[in-house]
Amino acid sequence: CQYETPASGITQHFQRECEHHSIRCPKCSATVLCREVCAHLLSASCNTTMHLASESEVPPCYAEEMAVLTSFKGALERQADKIAAYLRPMAVDSSTHGDRLNEISHGINTLRQELALSTRQTNDILTASALEIAASNQEVKECLATSSDTVNTFSRSVISLEDTMKDGLSRTQDSFSQIIAAVEEIKVEVKKKDQKTLDCVVSVPQHAELQEAQCVFSVKAVKSLQDTATREDWAWYDSEQVYLRGYCMSPGVFITKSDESLTLHARYTLHKGDMDDAVQWPFQHQVRMSVVHPRGEASKVLEYKPLRGVAEKRPKITSNRPRYSDGYFLLEGLISEGYAEDDELRIKWELVP
Questions:
Q1: CB 264, CB 334: distance < 8 Å
Q2: CA dist 240 to 30, 188, 253, Å?
């Protein structure tokens, strides 16, 4: 039987409700299950002969009591096994919990001892710190007293020094006034000497530039100039501005078409320069232009005497009109003789006194 009930209700269930225990048939005294009694009474196996024989062998009251006790004993044993199965883990858990509680108790006792020791050490440290602070306070008080005396002495020294400095400053101001007057006199004298020195310094480069009389430059892209002159009847090339004998000018060459040939003339342009006040006007220096052979074998020389025209007067704004020489070289001849090496002509320009 799998029926579950409190122990107090086992007897009632066994006697009135349970169908799984055995009882004796009231007709033939055969042992059958309670749920099969009705079927047994209707079956052919139930007969009076067997009942009588059974009754003669075992007293009915004793047999029924034995059956009840046997069934009751079996039920109690099964319930006892179940209760033991439930109680066994509880016993193990109780033992485990007891060990854990002992460990916790031991840990608490150890912690209590450590806290007590730490508290005593902390109290000792605080006591020592309090004593040190008290001693430091006493030292600070003594130092403050000493410092107060030192500050008073220093204050008196500062006041005395201030009075001394005031007297010295008054005397120094008088000396400064005398020094300033002397410095002003020296400045005036130095200014006069500086102006003389500046005039000398300016005159040195002017003198050097007045002595420079020649320059050398290269006429580049001769073939292009030749094509331009052939197509448009003229072309020119100017070098950078230079100072020759104090005149600011741009030396150059002028190529023009004459009949079926091209001629190379000297060309120059006068510009407004820094040395115009130091040179003579109008421009009268003779111009000497040389075409230098790249191998140094020979040079073609052309000299030209400027006219006294507008181009030779002192420039008023920036530059005068260009001036060309009457004399010339045949450009084809210069090229055929090897003067135009690497498509360049090397020109030497001079101003002759």
A1: yes
A2: 154, 43, 13
The answer to whether the CB of 266 falls within 8 A of the CB of 235 is no
Q: What fold does the segment set 1-47 form as a domain? A: Herpes Virus-1 (3.30.40)
Q: Which of 348, 215, 199, 350 is nearest to 278 (CA)?
A: 199
- Residue 287 in contact with residue 306, Cβ under 8 Å? yes
pLDDT band at 286 (very low <50, low <70, confident <90, very high): very high
Domain positions in the chain:
1-47, 102-210, 214-352
Cα gap 143→189, rounded to integer Å: 63
pLDDT-based confidence at residue 65 (cuts at 50, 70, 90): low
Task: Please give the Cα distance from 226 to 24 (Å, whole number).
Answer: 156
Q: Report yes or no: 276 and 314 within 8 Å, Cβ to Cβ.
A: yes
Condensed to tens digits (0 to 9), the pLDDT of residues 261-283 reads 999 999 999 999 999 999 999 99
Which tens digit of pLDDT belongs to each residue from 101-121?
888 888 888 888 888 888 888
Residue type for position 282: P
Dihedral angle of Cα 324, 329, 330, 332, to the nearest 10 degrees = -110
Return the CATH number of the domain spanning residue range 214-352.
Answer: 2.60.210.10
CA dihedral 219, 223, 225, 229 (to 10 degrees): 140
